[in-house]
Amino acid sequence: MKINTLILNHFMLFENAEFNWSKNINIICGENSTGKTTLLKVMYSIL
């Protein structure tokens, strides 16, 4: 399965977030407690 776009509205730390994935490499980085691990768990659960 290929995910091109992920939209999260009122989900945990994300109020209105849209993620558009490229065809090559996507890097998720940010400060502590900003939702990086939550985003990965969401991606894992929908696959």
UniProtKB/TrEMBL annotation:
<dbReference type="GO" id="GO:0005524">
    <property type="term" value="F:ATP binding"/>
</dbReference>
<dbReference type="GO" id="GO:0006302">
    <property type="term" value="P:double-strand break repair"/>
</dbReference>
<protein>
    <submittedName>
        <fullName>ATP-binding protein</fullName>
    </submittedName>
</protein>
<dbReference type="InterPro" id="IPR027417">
    <property type="entry name" value="P-loop_NTPase"/>
</dbReference>
<dbReference type="GO" id="GO:0016887">
    <property type="term" value="F:ATP hydrolysis activity"/>
</dbReference>
<dbReference type="Pfam" id="PF13476">
    <property type="entry name" value="AAA_23"/>
</dbReference>
<feature type="domain" description="Rad50/SbcC-type AAA">
    <location>
        <begin position="6"/>
        <end position="41"/>
    </location>
</feature>
<dbReference type="InterPro" id="IPR038729">
    <property type="entry name" value="Rad50/SbcC_AAA"/>
</dbReference>
<keyword id="KW-0067">ATP-binding</keyword>
<keyword id="KW-0547">Nucleotide-binding</keyword>
